[in-house]
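Quick one:
INPUT:
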């Protein structure tokens, strides 16, 4: 099983507008309900996997569902990444003194892309 690197609250980057990470609007804020709905669907897929194992379903059928769940998570991650680029990176690029912040946001996005490619 692949593990996901998640930053701790001590090392989490500040929000796009320089506020605390939990205080400001993020790139995904406008689509929050749609994202939550999508995550609930993915959660249901994973629970379905548990049920399939519990019911001794054929291995290949379980692997097919694992693949579908993995693709759903990857699609969700790409959507979040796109929103981050459109919102946070674009805001840093538009800022008058955004050179250093822009470099930091691009490095942050590059690291996220690298993590996605390792999975």
């Amino acid at each position: 099983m692949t593990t996901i690197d998640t930053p701790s609250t001590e090392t989490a980057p500040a929000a796009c507008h320089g506020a605390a990470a939990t205080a400001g609007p993020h790139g995904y804020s406008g689509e929050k309900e749609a994202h939550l709905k999508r995550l609930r669907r993915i959660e249901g897929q994973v629970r379905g996997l548990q049920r399939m194992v519990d019911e001794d379903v054929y291995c290949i059928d379980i692997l097919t569902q694992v693949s579908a769940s993995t693709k759903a998570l990857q699609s969700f991650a790409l959507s979040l990444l796109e929103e981050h680029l459109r919102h946070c990176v674009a805001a840093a690029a538009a800022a008058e003194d955004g050179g250093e912040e822009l470099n930091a946001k691009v490095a942050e996005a590059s690291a996220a892309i690298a993590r996605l490619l390792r999975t």
